[in-house]
Specification:
Arc Repressor Mutant, subunit A, Four Helix Bundle (Hemerythrin (Met), subunit A), 2 domains, 2 strands, elongated, Tscrpt_reg_HTH_GntR
């Protein structure tokens, strides 16, 4: 592909398109290393500056991790961390107030209630192992001396873990990105609560109800418990929207 291929495009988009094609065809896979900047520049007839711009975009997408220095560890390696890119994008658009927090909450309710119902349908050793880990998370959350930051982290991990048990990777990715996008708003809402310890205890009781419904393979109860849990916290922490 020569220089004529980049006419009418942002130069770095040629590299992005080529990487996409190679991933789709199987010529590139997670764990593979991209060709060097020099090799890509020569292949597409573009500058190394444009190649570096393409790599930065892929890095921001959570598709590559760039190494530093020289030798076998240098260069960009293909990875797959889509929730990181989605999370940052949603976070920035939330900050711009283009995406309302209430709509993010509604999206969580829709996706997570379905995911909880799907999780309740699973059984077997893998499901039991996941549910045991979820139970240990709740045991740690019971500690009244647990720092708030750790509480929020484990709270989110519990939700994502149960959602991923439902088996839908895309739903799990989207929910993880929503968590990353809204963590600042959750912390802000908590700081404004007059009795956070009481709210925290109520959240824990709701977590236990969710886990019990999933363990009991009660899809309707699991879906309902998750939806009520999410809505209750939003209405409590953000009473004005």
């Amino acid at each position: 592909m020569g220089k004529s291929a980049v006419i009418g495009n942002k130069t770095y988009e040629v590299v992005l398109s080529a990487i996409e094609t190679r991933l789709r065809s199987g010529d590139l896979s997670v764990g593979d290393r991209l060709p060097s900047e020099r090799a890509l520049a020569e292949e597409f007839g573009i500058s190394r500056t444009s190649v570096r711009e393409a790599i930065r975009v892929l890095d921001a997408m959570g598709l590559v991790r760039s190494g530093v220095g020289s030798g076998p560890a240098a260069g960009a390696v293909v990875i797959s961390e889509p929730s990181a890119a989605l999370g940052w994008g949603l976070r920035m658009h939330l900050a711009s107030r283009f995406l309302p927090v209430a709509d993010m909450v509604s999206t969580r309710v829709l996706l997570e209630s379905d995911a909880a119902a799907a999780a309740a349908a699973w059984s077997g050793e893998r499901a039991e192992a996941v549910l045991d880990r979820a139970g240990r998370i709740l045991d740690e959350l019971d500690d009244p001396g647990l720092p708030d930051e750790r509480f929020h982290e484990l709270d989110a991990r519990f939700h994502v873990m149960l959602s991923e048990l439902g088996g839908n990777v895309v739903v799990g990715t989207i929910l993880e990105s929503l968590r990353q996008a809204t963590v600042g708003y959750v912390q802000e809402g908590v700081r404004g609560l007059p009795d956070w310890p009481a709210v925290r205890a109520r959240l824990q009781a709701q977590h236990r109800d969710i886990l019990a419904a999933v363990r009991g393979h009660d899809a309707d109860a699991a879906s309902r418990a998750v939806a009520e849990h999410i809505r209750w916290f939003h209405e409590t922490a953000f009473p004005h929207g």
